[in-house]
Every structure is written in C-alpha cells, then in structure tokens.
Amino acid sequence: xxxxxxxxxxxxxxxxxxxxxxxxxxxxxxxxxxxxxxxxxxxxxxxxxxxxxxxxxxxxxxxxxxxxxxxxxxxxxxxxxxxxxxxxxxxxxxxxxxxxxxxxxxxxxxxxxxxxxxxxxxxxxxxxxxxxxxxxxxxxxxxxxxxxxxxxxxxxxxxxxxxxxxxxxxxxxxxxxxxxxxxxxxxxxxxxxxxxxxxxxxxxxxxxxxxxxxxxxxxxxxxxxxxxxxxxxxxxxxxxxxxxxxxxxxxxxxxxxxxxxxxxxxxxxxxxxxxxxxxxxxxxxxxxxxxxxxxxxxxxxxxxxxxxxxxxxxxxxxxxxxxxxxxxxxxxxxxxxxxxxxxxxxxxxxxxxxxxxxxxxxxxxxxxxxxxxxxxxxxxxxxxxxxxxxxxxxxxxxxxxxxxxxxxxxxxxxxxxxxxxxxxxxxxxx
Length: 430
Fold this sequence. Notes:
This protein is of the alpha+beta class. It contains twelve helices and 16 strands. It has a seven-stranded antiparallel β-sheet with strand order 2-1-15-14-13-12-11, sandwiched between helices. It has a three-stranded mixed β-sheet with strand order 7-6-16, with no helix packed on it. The model is unreliable at 1-42 (pLDDT under 50).
C-alpha cells in the first residue's frame, strides 16, 4: 500500500467513522473525563507502586488505568518515553499494542458471526481457500527438508480464535524456526503476507499453541466484509468507541507521542533501541500492529465489561460476550510458552500452578489470581510488555502499558502484578 493510498484510506475511514459514531449513538467523551468526574485519579497507593518502579528503573515509564462498573477509577503516567532523550510519559502517550490487537480482531470476528457472515464451527477454508487443505509439519528428513502431511480435520474459526488450529510463532516453536530457515520463508516479524504460509505443527483441535491464528482471522474478516481490516475496525469498533488514537498507521503529530522501545540487557539495565516497526506492511495483521493509548484501550475493555454495551451503543450482543468469556478448549492447557528467542521473549507462565484455558479472545485463569482477580478473569498481552485484564465477576478491568523487551520481562511483570494488587486493594477500601 502506497502512502497516497493510505492517505485516501484514512480520509475515507475517518469520514465513515464519524458516520458510524453518529449512528452508534455514542457521545464523544474521553474515558479520562469519567475519572475526573468521579474524583478517582491520583490514588496514593497506586501512584506509589508505579512511581517506585520507575525510580528503581524497573521500567522506563508506564501508563496504567483501571475501571469498575461505575467508570474509570484510576489513571496514572510515570517515568519517560525514552531514557536517552525523554520526554516524560503522559496519559496520551501512544504505544505499540502488538498482540493486544488480537482482542479487537476477535470482537470484529464475533460481530460477523452475529451477522451470519462467519461461522465458528464450519471449515474456514470455505472463506479462505488458502486454508482449505492445511498441512501439518511432521518433522524433517535426514537432509533437513521438512516433511508435511495433510491435517486430519479442517480448521474452523473457533480453532483460530482459541489458538488450537495448529499454527505457531517462531519465537516459541523451534520446529518453525527450522522450517523458516529450510524454506527461506519470510519471518512473521517482516509483515510480509508470505510469512503466513506456515504449516500447522499439530492437527486442529488437539492442543493449544500461540501463533498466527488471529492473522488468519483478520484475513477472514476482510474476505467476508469486503473491507481492509483497518477500515473495518474504524467503522465498526474504533470509530463508534471514539478510539481516535488507535490505528495501524499514525500521523506525524501522533508520532510525537509515541514511546520508544527499550531492551533489557543481561545485566538488567534498560537500553533504548531502534523501534522494530516494519517499514512496509503487505497486510493489516489481525494478530498485531495497532498503535493505541491506555485511554483508548480502556474504552474497549469497558465495552467488554459491560456486555458489549458502552455509552449508549452496542458492539456485541450480551450472549456473544458471555460466549467469548467462556472456556472454549475443554481440558487443554493454555498460556505456557517456551522461548526460542531470549532477546525477544522470556519463557512465559503468568499463573504458575494455576491451570489456564482460552475463550474466544483471551486467556482465562481457572482459579483466583494472586493479586486480586477472580477465577474466570480474562487477560492477554503484547510482546513489548503491554498487559490487560478483565474480571467479569468483580467488574474490574485494568490496562498496564510500557515498551520493554523481552516479553514477560521479570521486573515489568512484577510491577504489573503490584499495580493490579493496588487496584483491588484501593477498590476494597472505598
């Protein structure tokens, strides 16, 4: 897509977004306004947790928000966007969401399920011919060439949404690393369409593995809606929720608010690095790529917490949200990852000793979490250590944004946990 094409897309998308917002019946009121009206900002306990983390260089900077059923109860920004140059972190700082994009894509897919344009249980090959005859990687021969075999069953949309289709990511699957090297396939980090031509690493429905599944969901959305994913998002989710700082491409003015990525070195010191944003995207990725702010993403989370309804509009029907929040993979274990690329990701297990499952958009902890969230809460993250959780039982949701590699960074995860604990502690004292 050329720059001129993107400009035209943006203009058309913005106009359509305004029309969609008007028809959706949503007042254009930023989430932070609720916090000020409720008098909930600046809670000392939560402020202290985040300020101490920044002072101790656990994270270079952070923006965090929390809400309950009455509205936003906390918003805070601490530290700096760039340890080398500044400026200070602000509430409107823009972050790379990476895989926090997946929840938005999943909502889009479920909108189309409601409309009868997608089906959870029919073969997705009916919509995407590229997936009509999936192949499973069945090892390598003596010369190192991959061996492939037909999958035992077709891939469904439900498989894709629950990461049980058989697709993986190179960052957590050594066989895919070997396959990409043997076939000269572009890496999934290149944002090239050919990078999606990975084989399955197991038969659909047989286990859970985090992978490029939601990229394929994005392709399915485009196929049945007739729109580029970025336009569909703007017209049906971002525009109606007034998420004006969320998109796959941001303006020069928004670039000025973009945070820099920092790498954790072996000695624990954080170092600013060149942003890893692809210079050219051949497709809009359903699995990652959106930029956003804490305020925007909190609006999205509040819509989910309120059964798909927010500010007078309805993103999804309540029964659809309930379905998304339920375990969809039975007794299959989810959420544990073993890294193949330590600079990019650590090993991942956010709930040691607690079995986790997967709904139609996010991970579910089956037992109460250690920092306050209920059993049955929903969560996921982005590779630059952005996190969210949604607790339907207690009606509490939070978002925690920083930009640090590797994923599941120990200090960042501890601060996230401390933030969550402080949120629940503060709400309990009200």
